[in-house]
């Protein structure tokens, strides 16, 4: 289909407010045709114009939202952000938790594809989201490049802080029921991360369940680890479980299993 001057002007107008595939649909043309014409006339369009997939760029701007804070905590554990030039958020998990990653996709309004990879007999799935706004907003939560060694506590309080913590546990935490010889099973919460983040987590745990314990974050290679068990773990997890955020079922179901 030949491009007329009117078509070109319409393309310029639509490119200021729509994604490439939306423009193509609006004009009744293929994505390839619109992309080729845009390149031939040096058209840049808005920041979303050449994006392949849709996403809610403002999702992590709503810091009052418990859901936003939860997923920020999850990303702090299981995600990574690229350099400023790449402006890419990647979230990668084992395929056994694919449903949870799908929930994140749905929450953030991302319609891109899953990417599958294999390593050490394990299968992983990931999504790559290109958005400068999202990367910038995640920096407010202290989530930056090389976060595994530099992550600091986010400036959150009250339930928002708890929501972030739950997301972090779902990513870099472990909730387990330990079977002991000649003793009743015990519930345990184990978390890894930077010293600053784990000290912050310890403070929250101590406020929820102010029972005396000698447990403190301790170094393990390049990162730190912290864990609590038994009565303190049950009180902490029960308190966190009352916060209305998505949660990774296979971990939090341990609370009911322990009570039974």
SSE run: HHHHEEHEEHHHEEHEEHH
Query: Outline, from the CA principal axes?
Result: elongated
CATH architectural type of the largest domain: Roll
Distinct helical segment count: 11
Class by SSE composition: alpha+beta
Sheet with the most strands, sense and barrel status: 4 strands, antiparallel
CATH topology of the largest domain: Endonuclease I-creI
- The radius of gyration over CA amounts to 22 Å
**Major beta sheet, strand line-up:** 1-2-4-3
Query: What are the segments in which pLDDT stays under 50 over at least 5 consecutive residues?
Result: none
End-to-end CA span: 68 Å
Binned strand content = 15-25%
Overall residue-averaged pLDDT value: 89
Instruction: Spell out the CATH superfamily of the largest domain.
Output: Homing endonucleases
Tell me the total number of β-strands: 8
Relevant terms:
4-stranded antiparallel beta sheet, alpha+beta, elongated, 3 domains, single chain, 260 residues, Endonuclease I-creI
């Amino acid at each position: 289909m030949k491009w007329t001057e009117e078509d070109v002007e319409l393309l310029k107008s639509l490119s200021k407010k729509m994604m490439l595939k939306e423009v193509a649909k609006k004009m009744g043309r293929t994505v390839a045709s619109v992309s080729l014409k845009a390149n031939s006339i040096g058209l840049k369009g808005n920041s979303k114009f050449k994006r392949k997939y849709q996403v809610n760029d403002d999702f992590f701007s709503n810091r009052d939202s418990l859901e936003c804070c939860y997923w920020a905590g999850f990303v702090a554990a299981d995600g990574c952000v690229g350099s400023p030039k790449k402006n890419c958020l990647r979230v990668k998990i084992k395929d056994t938790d694919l449903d949870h990653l799908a929930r994140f996709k749905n929450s953030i309004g991302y319609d891109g594809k899953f990417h599958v990879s294999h390593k050490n007999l394990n299968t992983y799935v990931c999504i790559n989201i290109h958005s400068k706004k999202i990367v910038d907003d995640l920096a407010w939560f202290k989530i930056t490049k090389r976060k595994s060694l530099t992550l600091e506590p986010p400036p959150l309080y009250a339930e928002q802080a708890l929501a972030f913590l739950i997301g972090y546990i779902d990513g870099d935490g472990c909730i387990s029921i330990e079977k002991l010889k000649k003793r009743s099973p015990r519930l345990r919460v184990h978390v890894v991360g930077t010293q600053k983040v784990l000290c912050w987590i310890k403070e929250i745990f101590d406020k929820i369940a102010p029972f005396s314990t000698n447990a403190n974050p301790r170094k393990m290679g390049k990162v730190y680890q912290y864990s609590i068990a038994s009565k303190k773990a049950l009180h902490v997890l029960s308190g966190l479980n009352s916060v209305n955020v998505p949660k990774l079922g296979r971990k939090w179901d341990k609370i009911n299993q322990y009570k039974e």
